[in-house]
Amino acid sequence: MSLLKLGVPSKGRLQEKTIEWFAGRGITLARTGSDREYSGAVTGVDGVELVMLSAGEIPKELKAGRIHLGVTGTDLIHEKLPLWRDQVVSLDALGFGFADLILAVPKGWVDVECVEDLDAVCAEFRANHGFRLRIATKYHNLVRGFLRARGVADYQLIDSQGATEGTVKNLTAEAIADITSSGETLRANHLKILSDGLILKSQACVFASRSADWSDQSKQALSDMAAKAGWDAASLGGLV
Known about the structure:
alpha/beta, 5-stranded mixed β-sheet, about 30% helix
C-alpha cells in the first residue's frame, strides 16, 4: 500500500502561502524534524506524506511519478513539461504566486512597441552586427513557442539563470523574457514590456501526476483531500 506523496515548495513565501492554503481547509503541513529536513507530516487527511522540493523540481517529479501531487507555478509546468496536458492534471489554482512571463526591450527603443516591431529589428540587427539579436531568458520552450507562433525567427535565446533584467545593461543580451509581478525591476533597469508581449500569466496551482502509482490507498487519500479542498470529480481528471 502506498501513501499519497504531496510535493510542496521547500522554502520562501511560496511555501508559507501553500501551508496557509491547506491549513485554511483543515489540512496541516509540517516538517517532522529540522528546517534542513525535506520530509514532513500531514494531518487532517490520512495516508499522505509530505515531500519538500524546490518549485523547479516539482514538475519533473510529477512527470516521473515520484510524487502524486505537487504545488508549483503554471510557468514552471508549461516550461519544463511541453506535453503537460498528457502528464499532469491541474486540480486547483491557489490564488497566490501571481506572475507574468513577458517580453521586454530597452525603453530607448522608441520604435519598438510590439512583437511585429521586434521582428523588424531582429532582421536589421543581424544585418548590422553579423549575429542574431539575443534574448535572455530561463524559459526557452515558452519563449520559442511564443515567437514561432508570431513569425519571429531571426533571434537567439541566451540562457539566464541569474538576474535576467541586468543582462541588457551588461551587454550580454538586447532583450529579455522573464517573470515579473510588479514591473519595478524592469523599470529600474530601463526596460519596457511590449504591448503584446505577455507570454503567460502564472500562479501557484496544485497539479496531480498521471504517471504516479495510484493505489487504492492513494486514491482514497486524494478523495478525502478533494472533499476538504472543494475539488469536484470533474477537476480530478479521472484519477479516482
